[in-house]
Amino acid sequence: EAGVVQSPRYKIIEKKQPVAFWCNPISGHNTLYWYRQNLGQGPELLIRYENEEAVDDSQLPKDRFSAERLKGVDSTLKIQPAELGDSAVYLCASNSAGANYEQYFGPGTRLTVT
Amino acid sequence: QKEVEQDPGPLSVPEGAIVSLNCTYSNSAFQYFMWYRQYSRKGPELLMYTYSSGNKEDGRFTAQVDKSSKYISLFIRDSQPSDSATYLCAMSEGTGGFKTIFGAGTRLFVKA
Hints:
The structure holds 2 protein chains of 2 kinds. Chain A is mostly beta strands. Chain A is about 0% helix and about 50% strand. Chain A contains no helices and 11 strands. In chain A, strands 2, 4, 5, 6, 9, 10 and 11 form a 7-stranded mixed β-sheet that branches. In chain A, strand 9 (about 90-95) and strand 10 form a beta hairpin. The model of chain A has no long low-confidence stretch (mean pLDDT about 95). In chain B, strands 2, 4, 5, 9, 10 and 11 form a 6-stranded mixed β-sheet that branches. A 5-stranded antiparallel β-sheet of chain B has the order 1-3-8-7-6, with no helix packed on it. Chain B has strands at about 5, 10-15, 20-25, 30-40, 45-50, 55-60, 60-65, 70-75, 85-90, 100, 105-110. By secondary structure, chain B is mainly beta. In chain B, a hairpin with a 4-residue loop joins strand 7 (about 60-65) and strand 8. The interface of A and B includes residues 42, 56, 99, 101 and 104 of A.
């Protein structure tokens, strides 16, 4: 069984440029998360989807971040415009319905904003 | 004060040692307690989870939860160099829509 797939793995952009990350969760997993992990810190939730509905986006900086999961499968996270402080690893995770204690993570996208 | 506190280490031990990793927390409503392992430049990988108090064993790994002290532990027996990684504790108040809160992680080095 394929795990959570993310692309790209690495991205270097200049500040004020846009950037997008893509995630394909494990097949059959209704719940999808986007996390941000800063160096030396644990993952912090940005947004959680149940199928195609964003049910928790309270920590998403909505002035510059957006996300979508149009068909309830894969998802895209976008930042526009990027700031220096956005440099981090962006992790996607998924779990089957209700099993938030058993999240499966992708390898992450390491974003560097210069 | 953070909801979940975890000593960042690094913790360096010789091969074969018993490793003890710990987290403390402040939210008494936490019911699910998880341990994730994260290798460098990889995503976290679930090792095990525990519901409420008690112990859980899986091979060389044992998780303990002491809710009265708001303290959880992960023990690794017969540690191997391949155990060198960052270990993240995580907690949640319940299933479904409850948010998972992660500790900052402890870096572990097992020397051959």
